[in-house]
Amino acid sequence: MLERLKYLPKIIDAKYIGNFTIEVEFDNGERKRINCRKYLKGKIFEELKDEEKFKEFFIDGYTVCWPNGADIAPETLYLEGENH
Q: Would you say 23 and 84 are in contact if contact means Cβ atoms under 8 Å apart?
């Protein structure tokens, strides 16, 4: 279970590193890397198991999203990402 946050993270930039890993930059200046493979479960994420489709992510306001409507909560990326 995710811990309670006092900071509501917003992603301002993201880039693809490889092997389903993205590096995200938050509005507080922190950068974190996270392998998203473990989140590719369920029908909406099925097509994103294709790496070319996965790489089509973009930032929509505050988090990482894909054209098919999938997204991953910024809190998850913040708490589970590795500092960089």
A: yes
Rounded Cα distance, 21 and 57, in Å: 12
Other Cβ atoms less than 10 A from the Cβ of 83: the count is 7
Query: Average of pLDDT values for 57-75?
Result: 96
Radius of gyration of the chain (CA): 12
Q: What is the pLDDT of residue 1?
A: 42
- What single DSSP character describes residue 37? G
Longest dimension (CA), the chain: 35
The Cα-based distances of 72 to 8, 39, 79 in angstroms read 14, 8, 12
Half-sphere exposure of 34 (CA within 13 A, CB side): 21
